[in-house]
Amino acid sequence: MSFAGTHTALVTPFRNGTFDADAFRNLIEAQIAGGVEGIVPVGTTGESPTVTHEEHTEIIRVAVETAAGRCQVIAGTGSNSTAEAIDLSVEAEKLGATALLLVAPYYNKPSQEGLYRHFKAIAEAVKIPIILYSIPGRCGVEIAVETVARLAQDCSNITCIKEAGGSVERVSALRQAVPESFEIVSGDDSLTLPFLSAGAVGVISVASNYLPKEVADLVHSWRDGRIDEAAAAHRRLYPLFKALFIEPNPVPVKFALAQRGVMTAEVRLPLCEMSAANEKILSDVLAQLTN
Q1: Which of 3.20.20.70, 3.40.980.10, 3.40.30.10, 1.10.10.60 would CATH assign to domain 5-235?
Q2: Domain residue spans in the chain?
Q3: pTM for this prediction
Q4: DSSP assignments along 78-125, one per residue
Q5: Fewest Cβ atoms nearer than 10 Å: which of 7, 16, 62, 218?
Q6: Is residue 242 annotated as part of the catalytic site, yes or no?
Q7: Smallest Cα–Cα separation from 47: which of 9, 98, 82, 15?
Q8: Does 291 have pLDDT greater than 80?
């Protein structure tokens, strides 16, 4: 199974404090219509740290049911507790997820040996493919290149990494260390094009919540050899890529989607609404994209 192309890191819509399943279904339909290859429920963008275990599995269930085989469903099931990550991963597999996205354990800052054992234990508990997720800015620990290579060698269902460390050089280092069949995808919209040039095959995107077709077209252009088109798309979308991180994700992208009227901008504490000044900055970027 390949994870080339665009996979949307879905927001989790809330209304009056509860999961808004109707808005979520409509968001997924918009992604499929936009031509993305897959969706990623309950990752960072889906506010996984503040949904309950019951909500977590319900969000995955609704995603699988709505996608109905029309695109990949990569369920976010990572945790800083190996036992909890195994429980969520096993449940996601039973619910019909295509694959799993497993973030590095956060806060407890395990050693590289601890990271290896954590991911290996999860891989042994399920049969579907696993995408590792290295985002040291949030987790406080990086999945080292050597650890990724070791996991790729020892675990047949660990087949990809979402790389969100902000380094093109690391993509090159990973590409040298892992088998050709092991895939790398960008975890940062603004670095998708540079990462593709260094050997990545796609992106798990925040921006595609708002512009699925445009982000998918950027990746397709590159992969089809239309380099100038991909570069032009990157330049046009770059202000949005940056503005969507003007405050902690997913606060800005939820604001953008609320401006479109497809859901509320609600997030759960400790996240909160954007400042008025940043709302204006993002609104100006959104307006420029439609001109």
Answers
A1: 3.20.20.70
A2: 5-235
A3: 0.96
A4: --SSHHHHHHHHHHHHHHT-SEEEEEPP-SS---HHHHHHHHHHHHHH
A5: 16
A6: no
A7: 9
A8: no
